[in-house]
Write a structure and sequence with these properties.
171 residues, globular, Rossmann fold
């Protein structure tokens, strides 16, 4: 997807009313994204995702929908228009376990407050221009965690490799 005209992007902001929500709206307006829909309740956000098309969702980190974390509910609901939508979790302070939990629930990326316009737009641009491939497994549905950003150095595979002796019989 090309991002020449940011005014065509539709963003859903799922957060309680407050100064942090206003800061994100201001960042979007400065970037030229004017179609921002804000909702305070995760239930309403899920309803909107089922009937309207959005390009990205920014959700307050700990939001839940019927006891299920928002990102997981948004990824697994069958009536969702786009289950592969870019979902960003916004945390006031993202600890390592918050980032890992968000990643395991299918969030594209985590943004920490205070937000900078550069960070928000870089992450949004990366998610829309070069979308990650998605993994669909029984216990996980979301973007590939091993994906790299365009222009970023390749990531080293952190999985442990064990060497085993294998005997091969030629038939």
């Amino acid at each position: 997807m090309e991002l020449e005209n940011l005014s065509d992007l539709r963003v859903l902001l799922v957060a309680r009313k407050g100064s942090s929500t206003q800061v994100l709206r201001t960042v979007f307006n400065v970037a030229g994204i004017t179609k921002v829909t804000s909702v305070a309740e995760p239930r309403r956000a899920i309803e909107l995702l089922c009937i309207e098309h959005f390009h990205a969702v920014y959700v307050e980190g700990a939001m839940e929908h019927d006891g299920v974390p928002f990102a997981q509910a948004a990824r697994r609901l069958p009536s969702l228009l786009n289950p592969m939508i870019a979902i960003f979790a916004v945390f006031p302070q993202a600890r390592k376990r918050d980032v890992e939990t968000a990643r395991d629930l299918g969030v594209h990326d985590v943004i920490c407050r205070p937000v900078s316009p550069k960070t928000v737009m870089t992450k949004l641009r990366a998610a829309l221009v070069a979308p990650r491939s998605f993994i669909a497994a029984p216990s996980f549905f979301g973007p590939d965690r091993r994906a790299t950003r365009p222009g970023a150095p390749p990531l080293k595979d952190r999985r442990q490799r064990t060497t085993r002796k294998v005997s091969v019989a030629m038939v």
